Amino acid sequence: KVKHVWECSWEANKEEGEKHKSIIKLEQDIRVCDWAPVVTRVPLDAEQVGPGLVFLHLNTMFGKILMMECVTPVGQLRQRCEHFYWAEKSVPRVVCKLIGYR
Asked: 43-86 pLDDT, tens per residue?
């Protein structure tokens, strides 16, 4: 049996001038028969700047990845969602591609 397990916490930023932001902390892994391979453990901190901009800071076993998610309205009930990735040189490209795979 394969499970995606995660724990998450959310809080509003209380710093003056930063109250439009929120902070999300997430710990996740993929478990196979209740065994979680180390490679699947990816803690991340997300900073939601507004309704359409989120920065995700991922700490993989290969190195750090920064993911920026932009959501732009393009019409009634239509949005364009774009993802941009920046990673340390130690992170194989395939890791970013797997994280962004939908």
From this structure: 889 999 988 899 999 988 899 999 999 999 999 999 999 999 99
Q: How far apart are CA 87 and CA 65, in angstroms?
A: 4
Copy the structure tokens of residue 66. Answer: 């920064």
Residue 63: count of CB within 10 angstroms of its CB: 14
Minimal CA–CA distance to 51: which of 67, 72, 27?
Answer: 72
Q: Are 85 and 62 in contact (CB under 8 A)?
A: no
pTM of the model: 0.76
Q: For the beta carbon of residue 26, count every other beta carbon within 10 angstroms.
A: 16
Q: Is 6 helix (H, G, I), strand (E, B) or coil?
A: strand
* Structural tokens at position 96: 């970013």
